[in-house]
Amino acid sequence: MSEPAPQKAPILRIEGACTNIAQYHILQGVDLEVPAGAVTMLLGRNGVGKTTTLRTIMGLWRAHRGRITFDGQEITALPTPAISRAGIGFVPEDMGIFSDLTVEENMTLAAASGPLDSARLDWIFAAFPPLKTFWKKEAGTLSGGQKQMLAIARAMAEERKLYLIDEPTKGLAPAIIATMAGALRDLKAQGASILLVEQNFGVARMLGDTCAVMDDGRTVWTGAMADLADDTSLQERLMGLSMETA
């Protein structure tokens, strides 16, 4: 009998991360691993610390305890620009686009290391056709779904090892959600790793390989996304509702 293929080391590991914001103890012990080349879903009810976890990884909020390791390097105390240069792209929940600049100018700024790669830009246009249509338009004139496409495309402007994406489908129409999901599948197929905060359980089930569930600033469950998707009682115990009814 042949031996099973060895699993890749996690590209991101968080160990006992605690983050305070002013007098509030937001993260109170987050343990999380993101396998290389996989989509990891970060799930949980509103206000449990999912966004804070992403912002702590990026160094936007500083963990006062614990350890964060990315691609074999500890990044816990690194400044945000250094974390970005190490190969992490971040799409915040508020999108972070520049409304007064054109789509082209937003994308050009996102490619910090040099001019936009034409082949990569063609791939982005194939994933998000409206961005090509409105290339010379100010980003503030785009629809909500088109702005979200631009926000994700900005993170994709350069090849990254890991993408942190915060609720990309929130408030979007089903057709736009399907476009987003297809782009993220393509990104994974290119070998990227993704940590995705998502409230849409259909999207989580479709895209997720692994999953971590948070509650009250802590990770309370980790495992295969399929295991959580197939266990209604576990969903209700961890999150208070079933994926079938969400």
From TrEMBL:
GO terms for biological process: L-amino acid transport. Belongs to the ABC transporter superfamily. Signal peptide: none annotated. It comes from the Bacteria. Keywords: Amino-acid transport, ATP-binding, Nucleotide-binding, Transport. This is Amino acid/amide ABC transporter ATP-binding protein 2 (HAAT family). Residues 12-241 form the ABC transporter domain. One of its GO terms (molecular function) is ATP binding. PROSITE patterns: ABC_TRANSPORTER_1 (PS00211), ABC_TRANSPORTER_2 (PS50893). It comes from Aliiruegeria haliotis.
